[in-house]
Amino acid sequence: MFKGLDFKKDILPYLVAILAFYAISVIYCSPVLEGKQLFQMDGRNGAGMGQDIKTYKAGTGEKSLWTGSMFGGMPAYQITPSYKAYPFSNIRKIFEGGLPTPASYIFLYMIGFFILMCALGLNPWLGLIGAIAYAFSSYFIIIITAGHIWKVLALGLIPPTFAGVVWAYKGKYLKGAAVFGLFFALQLLANHIQMTYYFFVFAGVPYLVYELVEAIKKKNYLHFSKATGVLLLGAILAVGINITNLFFTAEYSKDTIRGKSELTSETGDQTKGMDKSYATDWSYGIAETFSLLVPDVKGGGNAPIGNDTKLLEKVDPSFKQDVAGSDRYWGDQPFTAGPVYVGAFVLFLFIFGLFAVESGIKWSLLFATVLSILLAWGKNWMPLTDFFLDYFPMYNKFRTVSSILVVAELCIPILALLSLSEILKKPAIIKEKAKAFWISVGLTGGLAFLFWIAPRLFFNFFSQKETDQFAQMMQQNPNAVGQINMYMSGLESARVAILQSDALRSFFIIVLGVGALLLYQKNKIKKGLLIGFVGILIFADLWSIDKRYLNDSHFVPKRETTVAWKATDADKLIMQDKDLGYRVLNLTVSPFQDASTSFFHRSVGGYHAAKLHRYQDIIDRYLSSSLNMPILNMLNTRYFIVPNEAKQPVVQRNPDALGAAWFVDGFRMVNNPDEEISAIGKFNPAQELIVDKRFEEQLTGKSFVRDTTSKIALVKYAPNHLTYKTHTTNEQLAVFSEIYYADGWQASIDGKEVPHFRANYILRAMVVPAGEHTIQFDFVPKSFDRVENLSVVALVGLILLILCGLWFSFKSARKKKLEE
């Protein structure tokens, strides 16, 4: 198989690259060698979100697609996805190097981008540099710290997916299809559709346009058709493997805050997806975009200025304490963990690559980069954002528009390394394109230098929110205007120091890199030395910035991460109540942005980015600013956790909680959702039911007489299975304190399926016949088993494609070596 291979040329560089990836990943995350683990808040929240499903599976061996622990109950498709095809995701561990987390994530970043570099035809030494440049782009490290692991995995798998596309259009059809299908399937299994969407639409489509243009120029239509066809096959198989998750997530999304509200009163800022203001909350500032060149151009991430005492040197002593406690970040986002920094010299190479690289691929990379930057501005440039939110398919399903900068973080190092490759092959290109070379220096190093010597000429050092606050303070306290101005002056000087420090840093990095290129162009240093120097320069630059956001202090002993949340005395007291179905509202935390309560109880609140829209409507109207007790009573909120005078959590029991189910005297029919949500703001849920007229056929001709002897009780609870016992002497109208969701819940009485309907805007209701009966609710999404079986068929198909791709690749390589 390996006959004819040159070890030094064909094996050693790749072996060195892989060993380097191991060393870099482990050294960066060296505390893992001591058995420590990374503390991640989002991972902790994830444990709270999925705890009841985990407990249920541990006790029964069955999985539940519904959780009852958050927001009264919701589908678990995006909480703990687990389908027949999921074991296939274990293949990913090969590309994680078998390392412990988070070293495994950094290794995945690097090996994935290295594969892409190989597909683009770059030599492995440049591939090694490119892998480092991609992996250590600051945002990719920051999201590891935050615990956005699904996003991390998707971003690690995107480059090798792209590699499959490149190979296919280079004529290696089976190899390209197999690589593309494999990594696309793993990428979808990573379950971050937003990242996958950004990659395909904003990076993939421009590249396909480039290939199409090339095919038209060369009149090579058959080749383009073949490559596109095999990639389509790989895509079909990858999507097929993930069809269960994709199908039911798509079905679910229309009912979530990612879909359009049914309330006409909420349509002023609406798209067919989520609310525009919600979608653009995290918009990258226009000036903040310079963080690609100068990391802390807006202060970096949220942290007290006083963490670095050097920044206070020029601050008036009487205001040092106030400035020290102020935030170092002054950008447009509500808050941020850190900037998007791609490396100063990497950015220089990218810009020069627009002139030095002959291949038309540079225009697709430039287009994708610029478009991602413009869209990342979000609310700061609404004409473009409006267009995409209103007219571009699926774009309005995603929030945090600033995260689209991942496209730039993919494209910039690709073109940068293609640029470096051109310089290495033809040093004279620097002299031939001297004007372009020095323009590139000016747009990067020159700009960084200007930021250093005249920062106030280019930037305002207060966010808009701060500016408004200071203006309001001056208006309310005219006598304090002088002091406020002195404080602002001190704060500004500290922030100027932050910017100047990083601007000078970026300037010197570019000077060093450009100097090395000029020495190489003049034949003063050899190719190997230049590659080594540039690699070390880029590595040192990004490493030092990343250590601001993921360093040894973020690692803790394993025992501190094994338990997601510790039960308080209040939690323990509530857990002594073994009754079924009651809920808890925890007011010692932000109840609708918190997962700790869900770890122990069925929570009225929770933490999730795609909660049901109707439930969010209830939160917005009746629970966020004040607490509507009739609403909380119908949600069976038996316990409140509140802070005492010492700010410790204590329990208050609500005697008016209505229980898991109850009978009402009658109902009121309303015409639409607006009337329905208004009606529940002023009714007695213990006696009356509010019903949308779309369900009127289930109540036509019905009237109900109160039966004081009637009983209904929840006797068995599981997240996806509820059993009630009833006793009535005549027909009754029952309300269940469970969230209505039509696409999956099936109701039965004594084993016979019966209809149920939505009532009180979010709950379930049912007409119950006289007598003693057993009512069951089971969450069994229609066609689930058939869709699951389809995914298995697709998995078999992909495995066959991969085997064929491997066989033909080895056969082709052997034939080539024999011919040589």
Q: Which structural category fits the helices and strands?
A: alpha+beta
Q: With helices defined by DSSP (H or I, 4 residues minimum), what is the helix count? A: 31
Distance between the termini: 15 Å
- Coarse morphology: globular
Oligomer: single chain
Task: Tell me the helix content.
Answer: 40-55%
Q: Tell me what portion of residues adopts beta-strand conformation.
A: 5-15%
Low-confidence stretches: none
Compute the CA-based radius of gyration.
30 Å
The major pleated sheet works out as: 5 strands, antiparallel
Mean pLDDT: 91
Question: What is the strand arrangement across the widest sheet?
Answer: 11-12-18-14-15
What is the total tally of β strands? 18
Structure notes:
With 820 residues, this protein is an alpha+beta fold. 52% of the residues lie in helices and 11% in strands. The protein has 31 helices and 18 strands. The strands form six sheets. It has a five-stranded antiparallel β-sheet, with no helix packed on it. α8 runs antiparallel to α9 (173-189) and α23 packs antiparallel against α24 (527-546). The longest helix is centred in the middle third of the chain and has 41 residues, at 481-521. The radius of gyration is 30 Å and the shape is globular. It starts with 6 loop residues before the first helix and ends with a helix.
Write the topology of this structure.
Layout: H1 7-28, E1 37-38, H2 41-49, H3 51-60, E2 66-67, E3 74-75, H4 92-95, H5 103-119, H6 124-135, H7 138-146, H8 149-169, H9 173-189, H10 193-218, H11 221-241, H12 243-253, H13 276-279, H14 320-324, H15 344-356, H16 361-376, H17 382-391, H18 406-425, H19 429-432, H20 434-453, H21 455-458, H22 464-476, H23 481-521, H24 527-546, E4 555-556, H25 559-562, H26 569-575, E5 583-586, H27 596-600, H28 613-623, H29 629-634, E6 637-643, E7 649-653, E8 661-664, E9 666-670, H30 673-679, E10 688-692, E11 711-718, E12 721-728, E13 732-739, E14 745-749, E15 752-754, E16 757-759, E17 763-768, E18 771-779, H31 784-819
Parallel strand pairs: 5-6, 9-10
Antiparallel strand pairs: 1-4, 2-3, 6-7, 8-13, 11-12, 12-18, 13-17, 14-15, 14-18, 16-17
Helix pairs in contact: 1-5, 1-6, 5-6, 5-8, 6-18, 6-24, 7-8, 8-9, 8-10, 8-11, 9-11, 9-31, 10-16, 10-18, 11-31, 15-18, 15-20, 16-18, 20-23, 23-24
